[in-house]
Amino acid sequence: MRQPSSRLPWPSKAPCPAPHGSQHPWYAAHRAFDGARHWVVIMSDAPFFRHSRRGRREDKMMARTNGVPACFLMSLALLAAVQGAAAVEPVKDIVVFDFEMMDSSAASGIIPQDEHDARYLAESTQVAKNHLLATGYKIVDAKPAAAEISKAGELRRCNGCEAAIASKLGGELAMTGIVNRISRTEFEMLIKVVDAETGTPVSVGYTGLRMGANYAWPRGAKWLMEKRVVANLTNK
Predict the structure, then answer these.
(1) Does 125 share its domain with 229?
(2) Torsion sign, CA atoms 114, 118, 119, 120
(3) 79 and 98 fall within a common domain
(4) pTM of full prediction above 0.70
């Protein structure tokens, strides 16, 4: 195999300092990977990598077009990728409580909540869970705290007890959802995420007067999760 020269040349008409041999900065940096010549990928304009005249000609053309050496551009891309990976936030555990219904319609005292309402509330809760899973969150099962949740009654009226319950379950965040029925064909929805340790709101998503009967609740939850809740969590 052809060995690297003592001087690693840069493409013509794109002047750049070129130290000799092992003192070359890119050479020294990428030798540190594992000694298996992974650094060669970055130094694509080195003679031992570009065996063909066409390859060397392409590098020179890139340098003339962009005004900087090709290997420098590739090195910047690698650095950005490494920094981006380091900036990814760690996975957070979140307890998602079953969504609740609040009936503000004129028929609230006449028509009670039925099995269809319960079904679509459950589907709305699952939509929220699925979206959280797809964006990298870990769902903590709330069933072990069923007795405590039942004792608290409606979570929207328990003065922030969801945070304490989530903390006991080992969650870092707690999510609750409320569907308010305005009429049989209109509803509004609120999804809230709080810090399990402090109870401080972390993300809140609200949408009002959406058209559709109870079958439309999961669609409203999907919209809120995509457009409001997760976006607000990401920006924290």
Answers:
(1) yes
(2) positive
(3) no
(4) no
